[in-house]
Design brief:
The chain is α+β, with helices and mostly antiparallel strands. It has 15 helices and eleven strands. The strands form two sheets. It has a six-stranded mixed beta sheet, sandwiched between helices.
């Protein structure tokens, strides 16, 4: 992996490998996650994807992609802690698999740059029909989140637990803010993002780093040469702000959702913190060999599922489960009992070794999946860290029981959310 600074605030990371038959390219703008800008930012890649000045509609843009051996190009909006990441990723046949001399890398990078820097229109405003159409699609997407009851419940827990914190804002913003976006507001937001947001450019494929750098420099030469803002920071809250808080909704559902929000005792960024926290997560609720799965789900049959997820930079762990309405209290007690067992060091050597192998194996398989590798390096860029998947895997394999217990003892329950049936 090599890193190059192409301009102030514009960074290229390139991974040279002959492992894949496709090359992956990505451009990501990093914006602070804010309620007032989240929906506008989320709409931008959708509108830009509709066409460019040279390929002003989906038909002509699709024809251009077909000419590049069926290149795939997708808008993407992600939430990394309290950073909103918006942009595009592209997958194109690697030059090594094209007969004769090929410049697919340069052509793909040029089209990516064109999509970002030369949107369809007269250069002063987005096409109104594109804005109207994609705004409606975004509103529909936000509304549809309630249909996935687990994701809806997780979102509700985050918004309630993190009131007043940027982490409580959804990656697409709110339905109300999305509906109010005008073409003028979107154009203004577009200019601000181009001029001030840090930019992460990424490549994974067989091309030499020098060639990759030349291709991206040419493709994004028209980026404004301004002094960009620093990478947005995620503010971690070390401990709950007060007594345990409970939140609940009632819907016409046949299965309840029980979500617990826990504070890890601060943000987790460096290698020495990250590896033990990931092992704790695996032991407690991050795998099919975890305490939550084997005890709460399998042995006691209190949940349809019981898992945990990590937001390391924010210092938050979320336990999520599907339960019968009559089992809310029992499931909650047992979920917390398993955390207490971790705090007491009641972790067998077999549990610990299984967690080490699970985490290390997952990290090493990152090297075999281009999208996971891009996600890994984006996370490193956002958090300002540069350790490799291999280094993190080695650190995970060396984590001790004492380190896991020390992490567990810092964990504190902050909030509990339940989704109940209307008649429960």
């Amino acid at each position: 992996m090599i890193e190059r600074t192409l301009a102030p605030g514009v960074t290229l990371r390139a991974v040279q490998t002959s492992k894949f038959k496709t090359s992956m390219l990505a451009v990501t703008f990093l914006e602070p996650l804010r309620e007032e800008t989240a929906s506008c930012n989320a709409l931008l890649p959708r509108v830009l994807r509709r066409g460019t000045q040279d390929h002003p509609d989906l038909e002509s843009l699709s024809a251009a992609l077909d000419e590049l051996y069926g290149m795939n190009l997708e808008p993407i909006v992600r939430k990394k802690g309290e950073v909103q990441c918006l942009g595009f990723w592209a997958s194109v046949l690697d030059d090594a698999y094209v007969p004769g001399q090929s410049h697919l890398l340069e052509s793909a990078a040029a089209l990516l740059g064109e999509l970002v820097l030369r949107p369809a229109g007269d250069g002063t405003a987005f096409l109104p029909e594109y804005v109207d159409s994609e705004r409606a699609n975004l509103v529909d997407k936000i509304r549809a989140e309630v249909n996935d009851k687990l994701q809806y419940s997780l979102s509700r827990l985050r918004s309630q637990m993190c009131q007043g914190e940027a982490y409580g804002v959804g990656r697409y913003g709110s339905e109300e803010s999305a509906q109010s976006i005008t073409g003028e507001a979107l154009q203004e937001r577009y200019r601000a993002v181009l001029q001030t947001a840090p930019v992460f450019l990424y490549y994974c494929g067989s091309a030499e780093p020098e060639r990759v750098e030349r291709a991206f420099r040419a493709a994004f030469a028209a980026l404004p040469q301004t002094e960009r803002a620093p990478i947005p920071q995620t503010i971690a809250v070390d401990q709950p702000k007060g007594p345990l808080r409970r939140f609940s909704d009632s819907m016409d559902v046949g299965q309840g959702k029980l979500i617990l929000g826990l504070r890890l005792g601060g943000g987790v960024r460096d290698l020495a913190q990250t590896a033990p926290t990931m092992i704790l997560h695996a032991v407690y609720g991050g795998s099919t060999n975890s305490k939550l799965f084997l005890n709460v789900r399998e042995r006691l049959s209190l949940c349809y599922f019981a898992n945990a997820s990590l937001a390391l930079s924010k210092g938050v762990m979320t336990v999520y489960s599907g339960v019968e309405f009559a089992n809310f209290q029992k499931a909650e007690e047992e979920i917390l009992a398993q955390l207490e067992a971790c705090r007491r060091g009641e972790i067998t050597e077999e549990e610990l070794e299984t967690a080490r192998r699970s985490v290390a194996g997952s990290l090493r398989t990152t090297l075999d999946v281009q999208s996971k590798l891009e996600e890994f390096w984006l996370n490193r860029f956002v958090t300002g860290t540069d350790y490799t998947p291999q280094a993190l895997a080695q650190a995970a394999e060396a984590v001790t029981l004492e380190q896991v217990v020390a992490c567990a003892r810092k964990v504190q329950l902050d909030s509990i959310y339940t989704l109940r049936g209307k008649e429960d």
